[in-house]
Amino acid sequence: MYSANYNYSENVNILTGLGIGYVTFILAILVLTLVAEWRIFEKAGKPGWAILIPFYNLYTMFEIAGMNGWMFLLLLIPLVNIIVTIKLYINFAHAFGKSTLFGIGLLFFNTIFTLILAFDGSEYVGN
């Protein structure tokens, strides 16, 4: 008969520590992204607090990108939302004098490119 003295509480402690570390990392990324988006909204002459309000933040992003603010409702339609999101990020990049490639970067690596846009020397030029 096999009898092992296995301590399950050690594994639980390790997994708990990893979970807390992961949640802390995700919350730090969230806060960093919110600060960057707040800064971008202010660069565009919009209130920074708008980023905190669901749906209004999308409406404001579409306005900054030079699109009709109500186009955010198209994000609720499957497949159409993909095209609208790509167009939004490309127009958003153009509104700050950035290239189409930068807009694609905003789409796929949002936090990194949002930080770049928020804290570089670019200015809002509109559409």
Describe, in plain words, how this protein is organized in 3D.
- With 127 residues, the protein is an all-alpha fold.
- The chain has one domain (8-119).
- Helix content is 63%, strand content 0%.
- It is built from 5 helices and no strands.
- The chain has helices at residues 8-43, 56-64, 80-95, 100-108, 110-119.
Summarize the structure.
By secondary structure, this protein is mainly α.
Q: What are the SSEs and their pairings?
A:
Blueprint lengths: L7 H36 L12 H9 L15 H16 L4 H9 L1 H10 L8
Main sheet: strands, sense, barrel: none
The structure class reads mainly alpha
Instruction: Please count the helical segments.
Output: 5
Oligomer: single chain
What is the CA-atom radius of gyration, in angstroms?
20 Å
Instruction: Report the mean per-residue pLDDT as an integer.
Output: 90
What is the string of SSEs from the N terminus onward?
HHHHH
Shape: elongated
**N-to-C terminal Cα separation, in Å?**
76 Å
As a percent range, the share of strand residues is under 5%
- SS elements, strand count: 0
Which consecutive residue ranges, at least 5 long each, have pLDDT under 50?
none
Report the helical percentage: 55-70%
Number of domains as seen in the coordinates: 1
Q: What descriptors fit this protein?
A:
127 residues, mainly alpha
